[in-house]
């Protein structure tokens, strides 16, 4: 460990070398598992805190089996680890404060505080000089009516906290729907925000890393296809002009710099028809749309996160091959696994190399993320064709 320097947001720069360092992960899902697999290869040890028996991460790391808000368990994690990170953003505020006090949490809690709340997040993005969809805070039926008048239709009403995968959202297509949408979401008790609907050509995301030393590197933008509000596929290189890709990477870096983020920050954006970029959401952790980096980039997002929080120089983010990542949901798991038992004729014919990742979850529920396939290809159209030819995702594609 080297001497420490404090940054504006209170995080410190310490160099935590492999072989001497145990990393604690709050959360034991697939993101924790893939962080552990990447970090173990580098020589770090891992302990995860998760309430689920045999959690995906608990299969590859030591596990403290307890709830995320269990302060006693968090204290135990702090005692056993040299550095702590998290794999989901809804970390309990009390636990976050306790861990910061009792251990070393280079990501700090201010990034979590900001990204847990859509309004705070939008303000932070704007403070970085980056565009978001025009929005209004909604505090009553009257403010709702006024905001719909100002922003026009269509627009999207969202809960400020707790929404994910399209939950806690209502698209308003005409003014008559506004009050009903407001009443439905206001009943949840959450604060609300109304956003102008951006008529986008496509959705892209950039995973950016900022280290405790302040070094920043971005991964190539991924073009993301959602089905039923769940990420279906990420296509890299994204099929958008090179100047827009460069701009997207610059914006992501500007947001990470301005927020003094440490670790990974996934920046989701809309590409509007006129080429303008609007940031929709941030996630201060490894992101599903960054899974393609595992085989397609010189450094994976998971290795990069470990490097960033441990104060190592960041790894090279060069794209080594075009790639399509397709998610394996509960309904896709069996046919995907079955295919691995025999030579894959479609892949051979197309010149595509499928790399399968399965997360070790016991129950394969419909819509639940069970794994993903990274399809290394010469051209992303071949990867997309493989997905089509297997017919496994046919219902999701339609
Ligand atoms: P979110 O929960 O904010 O990630 O939104 C889920 C999805 O809804 C996004 O991936 C978009 O496809 C769509 N969406 C959300 N907000 C907007 C918006 N302001 N304009 C257009 N589409 C949106």
Q: Could you please describe the fold and organization of this structure?
A:
- By secondary structure, the chain is of the alpha+beta class.
- It has three domains: 4-105, Rossmann fold (3-Layer(aba) Sandwich); 134-196, ATP-grasp fold, A domain (Dna Ligase, domain 1), CATH 3.30.1490.20; 200-390, ATP-grasp fold, B domain (D-amino Acid Aminotransferase, Chain A, domain 1), CATH 3.30.470.20.
- The chain has 14 helices and 17 strands.
- The strands form three sheets. Strands 9, 10, 11, 12, 13, 14, 15, 16 and 17 form a nine-stranded antiparallel sheet that branches.
- Helix 1 crosses helix 10 (301-309).
- The longest helix is centred in the middle third of the chain and has 18 residues, at 242-259.
- The structure holds adenosine monophosphate.
- Adenosine monophosphate (AMP) is lined by residues 133, 156, 163, 166, 195, 197-198, 203, 226, 229, 280-281.
Fold topology:
Layout (H helix, E strand, L loop, with lengths): L21 E5 L3 H13 L2 E6 L11 E4 L5 H10 L2 E4 L6 H10 L7 H6 L2 H10 L7 E4 L2 H11 L3 E5 L9 E4 L5 H9 L5 E5 L3 E11 L5 E3 L3 E6 L2 E7 L5 H18 L3 E10 L4 E7 L9 H4 L4 H9 L13 E7 H10 L5 H6 L2 E6 L10 E8 L3 H11 L3 H4 L1
Parallel strand pairs: 1-2, 1-4, 2-3
Antiparallel strand pairs: 5-8, 6-7, 6-8, 9-10, 9-11, 9-13, 11-12, 12-15, 13-14, 15-17, 16-17
Helix pairs in contact: 1-10, 2-3, 6-7
The structure holds adenosine monophosphate.
Adenosine monophosphate (AMP) binds next to strand 14.
């Amino acid at each position: 460990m080297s001497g420490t320097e404090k940054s504006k947001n209170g995080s410190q720069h310490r160099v935590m070398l492999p072989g001497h360092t145990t990393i604690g992960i709050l959360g034991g899902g697939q993101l924790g598992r893939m962080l552990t697999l990447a970090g173990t290869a580098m020589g770090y040890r891992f302990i995860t805190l998760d309430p689920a028996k045999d959690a995906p991460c608990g299969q590859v790391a030591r596990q403290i089996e307890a709830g995320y808000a269990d302060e006693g368990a968090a204290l135990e994690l702090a005692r056993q680890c040299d550095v702590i990170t998290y794999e989901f953003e809804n970390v309990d505020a009390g636990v976050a404060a306790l861990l910061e006090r009792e251990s070393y949490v280079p990501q700090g809690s201010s990034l979590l505080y900001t990204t847990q709340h859509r309004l705070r997040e939008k303000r932070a993005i704007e403070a970085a000089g980056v565009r978001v969809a025009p929005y209004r805070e909604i505090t009553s039926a009257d403010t709702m009516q006024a905001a719909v008048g100002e922003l026009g239709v269509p627009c999207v009403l969202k809960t400020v906290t707790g929404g994910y995968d399209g939950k806690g959202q209502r698209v308003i297509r005409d003014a008559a729907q506004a009050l009903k949408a407001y009443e439905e979401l206001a009943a949840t008790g959450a604060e609300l925000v109304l956003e102008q609907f951006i008529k986008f050509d496509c959705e892209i995301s950039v995973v950016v890393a900022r280290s405790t030393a302040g070094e920043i590197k971005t991964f190539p933008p991924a073009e993301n296809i959602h089905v039923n509000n769940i990420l279906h596929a990420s296509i890299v290189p994204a099929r958008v002009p090179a100047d827009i890709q460069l701009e997207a990477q610059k914006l992501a870096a500007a947001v990470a710099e301005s927020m003094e983020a440490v670790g990974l920050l996934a920046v989701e954006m809309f590409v509007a028809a006129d080429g303008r970029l609007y940031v929709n959401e941030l996630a201060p952790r490894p992101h599903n749309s960054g899974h393609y980096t595992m085989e397609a980039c010189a450094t994976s997002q998971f290795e990069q996160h470990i490097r960033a929080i441990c104060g190592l120089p960041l790894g090279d983010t060069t794209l080594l091959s075009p790639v399509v990542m397709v998610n394996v949901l509960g309904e896709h798991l069996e046919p995907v696994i079955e295919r691995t038992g025999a030579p894959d004729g479609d892949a051979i014919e197309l010149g595509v190399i499928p790399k399968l990742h399965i997360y070790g979850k016991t129950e394969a529920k419909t819509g639940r993320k069970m794994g993903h396939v990274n399809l290394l290809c010469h051209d992303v159209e071949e990867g997309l064709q493989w997905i089509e030819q297997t017919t496994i995702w046919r219902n999701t594609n339609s």
